[in-house]
Amino acid sequence: MRASVIGDTDLRRRAAAVTLLALIVAGSAAGGVAAAGGDDRDFEPVQLRLDPAEPALGKLTAPLTMVEFTDYQCPYCRRFEAEVFPKLKHDYIDTGKLRFIARDLPLEIHAAAQPAAEAAHCAGEQGKFWEMHAALLGGAKDLADGGIEARAKALGLDLQRFRACVAQGKYASVIEAHVREADAVGITGTPGFIIGHAAHGELTGQRLEGAAPYESFDAYLRELLARQ
């Protein structure tokens, strides 16, 4: 009986993981899940170079790595940050199972996305990249009309230094590189993810796009860990 229960649980996890991939390939406008290509190529692994100096959460030795490409004005990115990320952090990042990296993919339809990405990196100069990352993706105040600087002020940043950094577009080349990387691995919508295993400075994983629920990410991560 016990063996049967374990088997049923494993089957449910695998089914949920397959469901996540199916949703991503099929697409779902209502759920914010976007197809990454719509054919069998979506299931082919992709490679992404990692930068040891870029902002990351979690242990360097974590068995799994997730890179998120985000747009700070994207409503689905905000949904991921509010509904999925806290649980991922608690269950996987803080427990040493997952290393999480955030990269930029400001979409042309969002006027404040590029300056917001600059703001996150400029806040990083003052040791508050992740605090600004969370602030930009949260809060009721719009990023336009002083919303970015209001967040910087709330975080206690040196505003003169912060303004100068944003104004000169100091991290424009970094953001542009992130956009090229997203394009190279076939990510066209936000949030977009590469989830897999990192070794020798390179991440090999699956391309996923969209604001899937936590349960789907959880099932997929469990499936990857089970293959270790």
Commentary on this structure:
This protein is 47% helix and 16% strand. By secondary structure, it is of the alpha+beta class. It has a single domain, classed as Glutaredoxin. It has a six-stranded mixed sheet with strand order 1-6-5-3-4-2, with helices on both faces. Strand 3, helix 2 and strand 4 form a beta-alpha-beta unit. The protein is globular and about 50 Å long.
Features:
single chain; 228 residues; alpha+beta; Glutaredoxin; six-stranded mixed sheet; 8 helices; disordered N terminus
Low-confidence segments = 1-19, 21-41
* Mean pLDDT over the residues: 85
| Shape field | globular
C-alpha termini separation: 26 Å
Which class do the helix and strand fractions yield? alpha+beta
Beta strand count: 6
The CATH class turns out to be Alpha Beta
Write a brief structural summary.
With 228 residues, this protein is α+β, with helices and mostly antiparallel strands. Helix content is 47%, strand content 16%.
SSE inventory with pairings:
Elements: H1 2-26, E1 46-49, E2 56-57, E3 64-70, H2 75-93, E4 98-104, H3 113-124, H4 129-137, H5 147-154, H6 159-167, H7 172-184, E5 192-199, E6 202-209, H8 214-226
